[in-house]
Amino acid sequence: MTEFSVLPPEELQAIKTGLLKRYTAICDRELSLDITRGKPSPEQLDLSAGLLETVDARDYTSSAGTDCRNYGGLDGLPEVRQLFAEYMGVRPEEIIIGGNSSLNLMYDTFLRAMVHGLGASHTPWCREPQLKFICPSPGYDRHFAICEQLGIEMIPVDMTDDGPDMDAVESLAAADEAIKGIWCVPLYSNPTGAIYSDDTVDRLARMTTRAADFRIFWDNAYAVHYLGERPGRVRSILEACKAAGCPERPFLFGSTSKITFPGAGLAMIAGSATNMEWVRSHLFFQTIGPDKLNQLRHVRFLKNMDGILAHMEKHAAVIRPRFQVVEDVLNTELAGKGIAAWTRPEGGYFVSFDAPDGCARTVVKMAADAGVKLTPAGATYPLRNDPCDSNIRIAPTFASIEDVRTAVEVLAICTQIAAIDQLGAV
Amino acid sequence: MTEFSVLPPEELQAIKTGLLKRYTAICDRELSLDITRGKPSPEQLDLSAGLLETVDARDYTSSAGTDCRNYGGLDGLPEVRQLFAEYMGVRPEEIIIGGNSSLNLMYDTFLRAMVHGLGASHTPWCREPQLKFICPSPGYDRHFAICEQLGIEMIPVDMTDDGPDMDAVESLAAADEAIKGIWCVPLYSNPTGAIYSDDTVDRLARMTTRAADFRIFWDNAYAVHYLGERPGRVRSILEACKAAGCPERPFLFGSTSKITFPGAGLAMIAGSATNMEWVRSHLFFQTIGPDKLNQLRHVRFLKNMDGILAHMEKHAAVIRPRFQVVEDVLNTELAGKGIAAWTRPEGGYFVSFDAPDGCARTVVKMAADAGVKLTPAGATYPLRNDPCDSNIRIAPTFASIEDVRTAVEVLAICTQIAAIDQLGAV
Lengths: 426, 426
Fold this sequence. Notes:
The structure is a homodimer. By secondary structure, chain A is α/β, with parallel strands linked by helices. Chain A folds into 2 domains: 4-44 and 309-422, Aspartate Aminotransferase, domain 1, CATH 3.90.1150; 61-303, 3-Layer(aba) Sandwich (Aspartate Aminotransferase, domain 2). The first copy, chain A, is 41% helix and 13% strand. Chain A is built from 13 helices and 13 strands. An 8-stranded mixed beta sheet of chain A has the order 2-9-8-7-6-3-4-5, with helices on both faces. Chain A has a 3-stranded antiparallel beta sheet with strand order 10-11-13, covered by helices on one side. In chain A, a hairpin with an 8-residue loop joins strand 10 (341-342) and strand 11 (351-354). In chain A, helix 12 (360-369) crosses helix 13. Chain A is globular. The model of chain A has no long low-confidence stretch (mean pLDDT 96). Chains A and B meet through helix 4, helix 5, helix 9 and helix 10 of A and helix 4, helix 5, helix 9 and helix 10 of B.
């Protein structure tokens, strides 16, 4: 395949004519496809069908004999904390299980920091003159949305294959006391699929921060969500921070949203025993306790780490072909043309696609006109502002394989048309 | 029965000797009884056993065909909103269903007010120089705890049989712009069992408030939790506020914690469409959505308002004898002695007991020494400060009938001993 940039204008024009023909034919099909959100498919949800039958009218007590139907147990059933401590790589006293949404736990942590400050010795964030957060980009739109809602200025830093650009992160954190933390998705990062290297983890733990209450929000959303042979490994941020003498620096988050059920899974927050005591002291005012029946369902269904890994292998079998079709179509349509780049993730829920600079918005718009909904251009950047206007997130899990194929084909066609237009061939 | 205060000292002494004998005999039994919390008994929880079998591996879609296992639906399944709108006496667009804890919804509402203010036109509470809340007392300790944690000064006003002393409430609200709201449990109030009169509701709706963002936190925790023939009725605070031209004044809260399962029920917030839009705009940043499977279980199990009422009749049948035994023991032990007063609630979860002024702490301590755990003296007042040191909350639902009988007997014995000691007979 020859790069578009070296082709003569008349050849580009001929290619474009062919592409427009395909585009028009697709428009005529009046498609309505959506590959915007990282949502498991019904086929994946069926894998957890058994979860709904582990608790019934006669069987609702925990291993310690707790009646899970009644009040109590602020931080989760002991056996559930045990299981997910192993899952999160922490000790049972370093985790709290609650609610169905890790986003909720992150948001609540921000709100506690705003109103109360992080522990007794720190000023409530709402009394600080300025608040900033380091936002590795492209990243997760819901993380950025929390900062935006709370008026926290977002400082983007580039993502590399090893995690955020640590030179940039270190110099920012060391220089500005308004910088209160950093968002991290350490494994199969949303959307690039990056896996934080050991060096990245160690530097995050060891770096000097001007703000004494600097926090790492470690959203380990895809801890076991692998597509390859086995889950990737990321060094323990909590252990690294303990070793570096700042055990309170990281808050870890996880959930079973993409293990069991997105709407009815379990969410968890982890960190140092001191941090968990702080969370517990706030939870006491907020709730009498979590839904222990749903916790019981989960521990009975998943059983142990081996059970979780075996279950995730089934997920991988369902979604692997969808990722493969993304790679196949992009490769067939775009390889060697010098106009696009994309990731080949080993896990997680996304492929990160880079159209030519300045083209993402156009491509997303053209695809929408052809009935294919893509994540809005810019969504992966703070304030929806992709400085290059090039990144597009592909979420291939929910749609059928055929729909993914068609949607990505449309993306590829639109990208080529936009690229040719930009080369000024027309 | 003769009032203690008119008995000669030697007769009181003889009575006390008898009481001490009984007290010692009870101590010798080494009891471990607990009537501190408003917790349903296992027998009550069994009434909802069927709830756990309404959703299974093959049956998880809402009436509109939504797969309840997956993400989505920020404000609850439509059929669930429909049912609980009727339950709360509001329209479906005036309610949001989320989580398992109404306390959590109350707490989050406070935190949103602290950080963002109540709607665009109001100052975040955290920027106000002073914050105060009207706290009808005795009241619910968890309400007071939220104010305490957030540094909101609590202004107690007396509870009457018709609700809070409205003369006091009106003059406070009209005079002080730091007063941002009032806590209310309108039906079978915790702990007195009071039912707000129509006049109380109307005055709360119509009263002038110095604070433009004054809010009524209307915790309708016991909306259908009756012990008599049928549920009591309280005039709609939302309709009253609409009629008075301040539809944004009330936030209504409810839950199925004491209808189905305390740990695994549904919680709800209701209010004007404008207020619900405000809540939704915050929820968007906080979560992707609630546990719809548990919502589906509830609507399938409870079906409709008739279903809820029929179900509550079964609850009443279980707890009525416990309340009856409280009344019987207190009546047998204390009637006519002029040393105690107590409520005979028509619903709810508590009996409010008044020992002689200055004696509650002593009574609770003596009962604890005899192995009977009562709600700490003062717990029903802001900052745990009962100015008369007389109120004790009795929660008879969880313990067995025999245990309730024994516990209340201990309470009555201790009250008499404390009263005699106070009369100076010894």
